[in-house]
Amino acid sequence: MAPSAIPQTPPKEVQQSDELLAAAVTKKIATTEFGSLPHLDASLLKVTKTTTPMNVPAAGDPIINTASQCTDHMITAVWNSTTGWGAPELKPYGNLSLAPTASVLHYATECFEGMKMYRGFDGKLRLFRPDCNCQRMLTSATRISLPGFDPKELEKLIIALVSVDGPKWLPEPGSFLYLRPTMIGSAGALGVAAPKECTLFVISTFMPPMDPPKGMKLLASQEGVRAWPGGFGFAKVGANYGPTLMANSEARSRGYDQVLWLLDGLVTEAGASNFLVVWETKEGKKQLVTAPLKDKIILDGVTRRSVLQLVRERIPELEIVERNFTMDELAETAKEGRVIEAFACGTAYFVAPVSQINYREKDIDIPMSKGNSGEYAGKIKQWLVDIMYGNEEHEWGVVIDEVGGLASNCLYSGDCSPTGQIIRCFMAWMICFSWSNGIDFCLHSLISDGGLFGFFR
C-alpha cells in the first residue's frame, strides 16, 4: 500500500482540471509577467558566423564519447529585470563570462533541456517534438524564478542553430547530435533572491548512445531520495541532478548502471529517466505501469509521454496505469512470475530495457523475451526510431529547412528582422536579373545553400 503522505491517483476529471489550471497559469506567466518589457523574439536574431570553423571528429574518434565536443555555433540571449529580453544572437561557440557572484554559482538558479537533432535515413534533418521541450523549459524556468518566455520563440532559436550547424556536423544518415538549451541566473550579486539578470544559451554536442546493450541493471535506493512532495522533482533544474551523483557512483561501483529511486518505498525514476514496468494482474490483465505526474515527483519526460501515446494508439490490449506503486509490490509481482518486462526511457537513455533490479541486497531478474529487450520495449523503440529518422512520416518528426530558415536568411552578419530579410531578398533578385543565366538559374540560386543566400551570409 502506498504511504498516506502521497494520495492515490485522483479521478480523471480532477486530473484534467489540474492540467487545465497548470496550462492557464503557465500561459499567464509567459504572456503577462513582464508587462511592456520586451519578450524573447526570435525575429530579432543577430547572426555572426565563425571565421575559424572546427573540424568534425571522424567516426570512432574518442572525443565523441566525452560529450565535450560542441559544434561551431551557439545561441545566446540575455534578460534583465529592467529592459526585458535583448535580441538573441547566433554566434561562434565560446566560453561564457560570469561574475564570481553570479546567482547560478551560489543558489543553483538554472534550468535546462535535453533534446536531439537527427539525420534521417532519408537524408533530412529533424527534431523530435521540440515544442514539448520548450514548453517544459518554461515550466522549469518559472519554478526556479527565472524569466518567462514564449516557448515558440525558443523553438525558433533552436531551429536556427540546427539549420546552421546540422549540415556540416551531422552528415551521416542514422546519426544524432545532442542539444542543450539552458538558462542561468547571471546577475552578479549575492543574496537569496530571484535573479535580476538571466542568460539563455543553446549548444549542440556529440553524445554517445547510453543504453546498455544487455539491459540496464538498477540498484534500488534504500536511503537517499531524488525528489519529494512539494519539491521540484518535476522541473529540469540542476539541483535535481548534482545531489544524485554520489548514489550513482556507488551503484556503478557495485556493478549496476543506475539507481532506481524510491520514496518511502514508492518507485519513482531510474537514474535521470522515467521507469515503466509491464506486468500481468492476478486477473490476467496486462498493464503498463508508471509513476504518476500529479505528485510532481517525477519529470514529465517527452519520451515517456510519447511512449504512453503510442501504446494507447497501437497496443490497445495493454492497459496504461499511471499510479503510485511500491518496490515491494514490484518484487512480489516478479516473485509470482507476473512481471513481463521493464524499461527506462528518456532523451539520453532513449528506451533502455531493464534486466535486473537489486532490492534489499537481492537481485530480481526482469524478463527480456527478445534477448536484449522485452517485446513491448522493442516495438516502442522501433516506432520511435522510425519517426525520429524519417522512416515513418509523423507530426512529431519536425523536418528542419537546411537551406532557408531563420539564421541562414540574414543580411550579412546581423540583421534577421523582417525588414532585413526583405532587403536581402530584394538585393538577391536584383543580382539575379542582372545576370544573363535566366530566371531558372536565379530561382535555383536563391534556394541553394551555396547560392546567393550563401553569398550574403
From TrEMBL:
Which GO BP terms apply?
Answer: L-leucine biosynthetic process; L-valine biosynthetic process
Sorted keywords for this record are:
Amino-acid biosynthesis, Aminotransferase, Branched-chain amino acid biosynthesis, Pyridoxal phosphate, Transferase
GO cellular component labels: mitochondrion
A Pfam family for this UniProt protein? Aminotran_4
Q: Does the keyword Amino-acid biosynthesis apply?
A: yes
InterPro entries per UniProt: Aminotrans_IV, Aminotransferase-like, B_amino_transII, BCAT-like_C, BCAT-like_N, BCAT_family
Q: Which residues form the signal peptide?
A: none
Q: Which GO terms describe its molecular function?
A: branched-chain-amino-acid transaminase activity
Necessary cofactors: pyridoxal 5'-phosphate
Q: Which domain of life is it from?
A: Eukaryota
Give the family per the record. Belongs to the class-IV pyridoxal-phosphate-dependent aminotransferase family.
Q: Which PANTHER family match?
A: BRANCHED-CHAIN-AMINO-ACID AMINOTRANSFERASE (PTHR11825:SF69), SUBGROUP IIII AMINOTRANSFERASE (PTHR11825)
Q: What is this protein called?
A: Branched-chain-amino-acid aminotransferase
Organism field:
Monilinia fructicola
